Amino acid sequence: MPSGAPVIAVSEAAPAELRVRLKGTPYAEPRPVNGREAGTDTAELRRLTAHRADGWGRRAHEAVIHVASAARKRSGRTSRAWVSTF
Question: Which DSSP symbol is given to 26?
Fold first, then answer.
C-alpha cells in the first residue's frame, strides 16, 4: 500500500473533452409518468449533466479531496466514503 495520500492528476484536456461529451448527451424521450416511476428522473439527470458540463469547479473539488485525504491519513481512518463526485 502506498505511504502517501493519493494524488488526483487529471490533464486539462480530459475535462474539456468530458464537457463536450456531456453537452452532447442524448436523452430518452420523457415517459408519461411522474418522477422516478420510470427510473431516473429526466429533469434531475439533465440538471446534473448541465452542472457537470458548465458549473462544476473541478480544480476546487480536487483541492478538497486532497485536503480531506491528507486529514484522513493523519487520523488513521481508512474509509473513503467522504469522496463525492458531485
Answer: -
Identify how many contiguous H helices and E strands the chain contains and give both numbers.
3, 0
Q: Cβ distance 49 to 63 under 8 Å? A: no
User: Helix or strand or coil: residue 75?
Assistant: helix
DSSP letters along the chain, please?
Answer: --SSPP-----SHHHHHHHHHHHT---PPPPSS-GGGGSS-HHHHHHHHHIIIII--HHHHHHHHHHHHHHHHHHT----TT----
**Residue 28 grid cell:** 430518452
Per residue in 6-59, pLDDT tens? 666 778 788 888 889 999 999 888 778 876 777 788 888 899 889 888 877 777
